[in-house]
Amino acid sequence: MSIEINGSNGRPPLGTTETSQSGGVRNDSKESGATGKTTRTAVDTFQMTDRANRLQQLEQEIASQPVVDSQRVQEVQRALATGTLEIDPARVADKLLRFEAGLDMQG
Would you say residue 51 lies in a domain? Predict the structure, then answer.
């Protein structure tokens, strides 16, 4: 069994048209020299929802934040150096258990 491919049946190849994030539509018009006919190609569009736009903004804000809170690190270093760091073993154990439980839920 063989399959014969004879062009695109007048459709443009995928990925050759443009869309915009704002949802605009672009129509490509081409005039054929011999016939004088104009053909138009409609383009699929999309528009992001308000929720998707807000999520994108939040993602950018998070990406711009530093990974390490330098001020907090300095406070802990100072407390360690002066011997004033107070450790609550019950609180540490509770946080460790919650962290482990969260890992179990994800995997």
Answer: no
